[in-house]
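User: I'm curious what two different proteins look like when written out as structure tokens. Can you demonstrate?

Assistant: Sure. I'll show them one after the other, since each token string lines up with its own sequence. Here's the first protein:
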Amino acid sequence: MFGDETYLTGEQIGDEKLFQMIDERQILPTTAAPSPGAFQMAFQKAFDQGADEIVCICCSSKVSATFDAAGMAAKEFPRKENWRCGFAPVIPGRGLSGIESR
């Protein structure tokens, strides 16, 4: 988000436009986690296309609401196999500092 303007990454704004806006405005955007509904739609689409299982790799719940949103969506598919993996923050030069799986 740039102030009051919001964009959906990959659909409403791409990397080139994002970096152009950063350069022009001299500010960094803020981010928001996808909603549980967005995950639910993505999961449903995958199942509709024949997927039997879903592996969803997210940021750790300690740094983002993404992990929890994916978990809420997964509960909408009780008869399907869903796995969620939460990654700890990446430390520059050190790679992944840890991994958690459920």
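Here's a second, unrelated protein for contrast:
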Amino acid sequence: MPDNDAAVEESVEATDEVKLSGSGVTPISARVCIQLVAVGESIRESTIILPAGDSVDTYKADVVDIGPHVEYIKVGDLVLLTIGAIVGKAFVHRQEAYAIVDERDVLAVLDR
């Protein structure tokens, strides 16, 4: 007969690991969950606000989680993206603003 206590303990450990994974958002496939880095007033309370006009073509973002098929980016990286990679992909979860982009839309990983 299987040891039920061991199964419960494993389940609790797995649940604890999930709770510790920052954003609570886990992308699928080769997608990356990001939070834009505030530049002036470009991010405002729980909503991603992009500046009007063509003055900014690229944005910096922190990687908060990655999908299982992401090869070149890791959680905690600072990345560079174009405006086109972000538009229409932003959302709010737990009162925080995020966007999920394809790994191929990330232009570069930046040094901190």
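A detail about the second structure: The domain at 25-110 is CATH 2.30.33.40 (10 Kd Chaperonin, Protein Cpn10; Chain O).
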